[in-house]
Amino acid sequence: MLRYLSVVILVITFFSSPVSNARPAVTFYTESYPPFQSLNPQGELVGFSIDVLHAAQQYLDFDINIQIMPWNRAYKNAAKNPDTFIFSIGKSEKRLQQFKWVSDFYTVQNAIYKKASRSDINIDSKEDINRYTLALPRGDISLDSLNIQHKHPNVYLVSNQTKALKMLYFERVDLINNNNIGLSGSVKALGLKQSDFTVAYVYNNVELGLATHKETRIELLEMMQHAFDTIKQNGQFELLVKKWFPEPVSQQTATQVVSPITTKPDKSS
Known about the structure:
This protein has two domains: 2-107 and 207-244, Periplasmic binding protein-like II (D-Maltodextrin-Binding Protein, domain 2); 109-205 and 253-265, 3-Layer(aba) Sandwich (D-Maltodextrin-Binding Protein, domain 2), CATH 3.40.190. Helices cover 33% and strands 29% of the residues. By secondary structure, it is of the alpha/beta class. The protein contains nine helices and twelve strands. The radius of gyration is 19 Å and the shape is globular. The longest helix is centred in the last third of the chain and has 16 residues, at 218-233. It has a ten-stranded mixed β-sheet with strand order 4-1-5-11-6-10-7-9-12-8, with helices on both faces. A two-stranded antiparallel sheet has the order 2-3. The protein has helices at 2-15, 48-57, 71-80, 93-98, 142-145, 161-169, 180-190, 218-233, 236-244, and strands at residues 25-30, 38-39, 45-46, 63-68, 85-90, 99-115, 134-137, 148-150, 155-158, 175-179, 197-213, 261-265.
């Protein structure tokens, strides 16, 4: 708890302006998910999305107060609290019914991953996933994209992508879901090798971005949208894309899937 509180205080200071006492602070919920947002060894929030919000800050008349927590908690907080924002959230039809979309950050490719050594795992369709154990973060967009339901004996819900990747690495599960950028960030954060993992099945591309509560004041929404329009038009946004993603990650052809699978929670998370 003390570590979490210190993170919030550090981020408030980082995004405050010289006249912050005269400005309101608006809460932005997120999780640790490198390279989009995570804590560095000094306890500071860094990442592509952090830099994007920092660039947008100069065009706002409020201070950005980032609160980092497990994704499922961040999602629930953003869904129940007007005048708050959430990032880096994947866009889906279900989520567009729950939130107002502010702006896209980056498009990623969602896929099912396995250990490269597991030549026995072969997935040609979504139905094939049911033959294997799978770890997924609670509240993750994959629950929507894969139409996952509850109480399936082979699907384990965990707190975050890092834990899912650890489960895969130590072969507690056969598969995980991630995207091409997020997997690379998690592999690096854990000190593992990218070559230890490989794509088992690609199913869609999704936009990650910033969203807000349906009842957020229109002036806050429009100010945030204007800030993003500005940094995209003046070139700041493109410079940040090139800084964090200098080499495009190759993408395979996505296969759309619609049939449901179901889940059971991981009691150890």
